[in-house]
């Protein structure tokens, strides 16, 4: 079979009506039967159609949009460079009064300065929330001073939203929950100016869930965490989605909805296993261990804690690793191996103390007290409570926690201490960590 | 990935989604694509998965434009899976066009200019001939040669090594 020359196929593809009969019918019949010629014809046809599409030409000849965006990208890069140089000396001195007047100096009035300040606030927030608040406040003052049209597409609102969100993060860690919610309202209001605010709004939902969680508004917290989870899922941001899922599971755990919490923590582990991500396997396993411990499934709890511990010893963080060791000690306590549990709990408390995590150290101390009470060793509980009292005093935590610990000491000394007293103090310490001004009220005598 | 690379890789997809999925006029879609990238560039460091972020963003921007959704509910585009997610046909077309783009960069300036005038601007062979002080017949021959060269380049790029 003789093939149709490419030149004829090109003309036929491009303008079939211009090919005279009978040649036109010959080509049509031939290409129906001959795969190679049909393929060439289709290539010509597709290429002809595609070549009329401006998108195809953009990489070769550019476009107004591309030119505008590239010049904008260059401006952002330049602003970031300048902001880095401007702010470097100031970052070393977060207490300086200069931070409060940044927005009055023209050279600081750029989006780059806002970005750098917000990033810095984010990076120091966990360890230095007070400094993070200073940086976030400075970022807000500059962002709000920028003109609304400083960037195309109202993008200045992205900077404002992020600065307010960082402020909320810092306030959350400082226990300033109502203030954090107000900052989140401001962040949300800013983000809503954008045509697409998905990432900002999902992040706001996540932080809001954390604030509600801290305020013990558990239903609202769970709903907000779920909202964040869906938002991150749509953005394909699996890591943040897991953060939201883990938070939602923790909220269920806090509400003692252990079955749902366990199911959600299992999802976290499954995700970690599917992605070969040790971090999520460890966090999920540790949390699932706690669930099973509360459900009385001690064997399963032990398996999950040990799985978490093996990973956390390798990858950290230390506080999660200590938490898994605490879980194992509690399993031992509940299986009746009290002496072994006491030994391990002492080590766990010492580790928390050495890291300044005094509330956790005190909570571990209460578990030890529970074991000692079961063994009838109340004299040691008095010593333990005395030590905890000193730990809190040394840490400057002169709160209701001191009264609660003093109460344990006195009750142990008087021989009236009960497991219910320990549980009351345990609940109080956990709440007082979030609300330092909370006052301790001893349990009514009829409960004892 | 630099901003320009991200733009060149995804701009076509975003335009097609706005135009095909949301039936937004091409010029308006161009503005939406611009706005999506303008916002993305400002917080690119916090975006973990670029493609779904951009697709979600053009979906929200399109919905915002159409005023079908209240901005208050714009946390995400609303449907699962997101209605903006490009289907296989669209993805194939985009891949083909990106390949054609690369091909156009490698066929030489004269051919590129001729094909651009003819296909993109829509000049007639007569108009091109006038501009180049030639004849329509000669332009047709050139066009054919350029198309052939373009097709060869396209095939060499699309062949699996």
User: Which stretches of chain B of 5+ consecutive residues score pLDDT under 50?
Assistant: 69-75
Largest sheet of chain A: none
Average pLDDT for all residues of chain A: 91
In N-to-C order, the SSE pattern of chain B is HHHHHHH
Q: What level of helicity do the residues of chain B show? A: over 70%
Number of strands of chain B: 0
Largest interface, by Cβ-Cβ below 8 angstroms: which chains and how many residues each? A-B, 62 and 64 residues
Q: Nearest-angstrom radius of gyration of chain B?
A: 20 Å
- Helix coverage percent of chain A: over 70%
Count of DSSP E strands of chain A? 0
Percentage of residues in DSSP E strands of chain B: under 5%
Q: Supply the helix-strand structural class of chain B.
A: mainly alpha
Largest sheet of chain B: none
Q: What integer is the average pLDDT of chain B?
A: 84
Count the helices of chain A. How many? 21
Radius of gyration of chain A over all CA atoms, rounded: 32 Å
The low-confidence parts of chain A are none
Shape estimate of chain A? elongated
What's the gist of this structure?
Chain A is mainly α and 448 residues long. Chain A is built from 21 helices and no strands.
Layout of secondary structure:
The complex is a heterodimer of chains A (448) and B (161).
Chain A: H1 6-14, H2 23-33, H3 35-50, H4 54-61, H5 64-91, H6 111-124, H7 129-145, H8 156-173, H9 177-191, H10 198-214, H11 218-234, H12 238-254, H13 258-275, H14 278-294, H15 298-315, H16 318-334, H17 338-354, H18 358-374, H19 378-394, H20 400-414, H21 419-434
Chain B: H1 3-21, H2 26-42, H3 50-66, H4 88-105, H5 109-121, H6 125-132, H7 136-158
